[in-house]
């Protein structure tokens, strides 16, 4: 574990947050040079070409046409693309648009209450929006931009972050603006960033086609928990992110062939706010638990498809969470009869509920044979699926 007291002495809050989000492993492997423009961390001609095209398209004489083409090809929910399209055309229902139609409303931004609201102000210039972009690691400075479209073109040009994340952040800022305008409440900066990242991850997982590596998982339409073979146990694991607390929560549950509760754990992990790192740490926790217990666990189920796929691969993992994956593979070697299964979120509700409950815990906690009351209903619902 990181020495939190020492980090507090040496670094500011933002640097501490970034440092603590780096997971520690027992492998102690050497540092590696990774390709940051591809999630797997390895360079390919395709990823290099894509990166060059991202850099060059803005300088061509057809920059505007390429902008629209790029926008409609972003791998984000359709409602997010639609929002960015309307924002780029400056037709979002902001207060300056209402006043232009002679609607008598207060012209001030419903979030900061300081300046007149416009699309550019709401999504970029508002003090709250500026803090969100900073927390997301996006340099939002663009002094020459006169509208949102010009700002987004410049931001996509100068940033290494995935373009999908940038438009998701804009969507989350707009969602927060609507909460402030219509319900009089606003999320925290970190919650807005977390909403964007989590929604994007969940959408990608739900829309990623199954590869041959997932052939041993449940069928694509499977959304119900299934018991393990007679005489064996199944462990389900999930993770949750709590940006406002600067931590992740791991939820693990073991059940038998009748669907009966055997044991469960909740493990808070301070400093980790990346969903994929948290999911990988959940698998590591599950394997360590199995090795140290007497339970004959045959199956470990998780709903994070990218982590599952990484576990199934046999080659060197150069992804940013690859060190944890390699540690999981090392632990799994001592469990030759163990299988990993990928399932959809609906088939992983008990572990998901446990992970969410980590919000209220500061230390790990466990139960054996008598489950906590707050998972009783989901346990019952799963048992009725059999």
Automatic annotation (TrEMBL):
Q: What domain of life does the UniProt record list for this protein's source? A: Eukaryota
GO function term, MF aspect, one: RNA-DNA hybrid ribonuclease activity
Q: InterPro entries annotated for this entry? A: RNase_H-like_dom_plant, RNase_H-like_EbsB-rel, RNaseH-like_sf, RNaseH_domain, RNaseH_sf, RVT-Znf
* UniProt domain RNase H type-1: residue ranges: 236-358
Q: Where is the Reverse transcriptase zinc-binding domain?
A: 43-133
Q: Name one Pfam family in it.
A: RVT_3
- How is this protein named in the record? Uncharacterized protein
The organism encoding this protein is Fraxinus pennsylvanica
């Amino acid at each position: 574990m990181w020495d939190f007291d020492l980090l507090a002495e040496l670094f500011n809050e933002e640097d501490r947050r970034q440092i603590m989000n780096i997971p520690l492993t027992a492998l102690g492997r050497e540092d590696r040079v990774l390709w940051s423009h591809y999630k797997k961390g390895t360079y390919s001609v395709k990823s290099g070409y894509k990166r060059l095209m991202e850099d060059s398209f803005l300088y061509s004489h057809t920059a505007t046409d390429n902008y629209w083409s790029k926008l409609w090809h972003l791998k984000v929910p359709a409602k997010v693309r639609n929002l960015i399209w309307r924002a780029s055309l400056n037709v979002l229902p902001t207060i300056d648009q209402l006043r232009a139609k002679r609607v008598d409303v207060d012209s001030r931004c419903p979030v900061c209450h300081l300046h007149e609201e416009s699309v550019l102000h709401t999504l970029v210039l508002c003090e709250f929006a500026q803090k969100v972009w900073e927390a997301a690691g996006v340099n939002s400075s663009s002094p020459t931009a006169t509208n949102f479209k010009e700002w987004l073109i410049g931001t996509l040009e100068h940033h290494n972050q995935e373009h999908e994340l940038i438009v998701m952040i804009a969507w989350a800022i707009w969602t927060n603006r609507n909460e402030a305008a219509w319900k009089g409440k606003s999320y925290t900066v970190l919650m807005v960033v977390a909403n964007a990242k989590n929604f994007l991850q969940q959408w990608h997982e739900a829309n990623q086609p199954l590869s041959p590596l997932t052939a041993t998982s449940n069928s694509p339409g499977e959304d119900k928990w299934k018991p393990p073979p007679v005489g064996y146990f199944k462990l389900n694991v999930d993770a949750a992110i709590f940006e406002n607390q600067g931590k992740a929560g791991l939820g693990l549950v073991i059940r038998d062939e009748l669907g009966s509760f055997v044991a469960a754990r909740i493990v808070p992990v301070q400093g980790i706010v990346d969903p994929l790192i948290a999911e990988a740490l959940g698998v590591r926790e599950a394997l360590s638990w199995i090795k140290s217990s007497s339970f004959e666990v045959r199956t470990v189920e998780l709903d994070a498809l990218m982590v599952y796929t990484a576990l199934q691969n046999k080659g060197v993992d150069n992804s940013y969470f690859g060190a944890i994956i390699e540690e999981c593979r090392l632990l799994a070697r001592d469990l030759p009869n163990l299988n990993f299964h990928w399932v959809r979120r609906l088939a992983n509700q008990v572990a998901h509920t446990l992970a969410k409950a980590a919000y209220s815990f500061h230390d790990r906690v466990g139960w054996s044979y008598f489950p906590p009351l707050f998972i009783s209903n989901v346990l019952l619902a799963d048992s009725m699926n059999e």
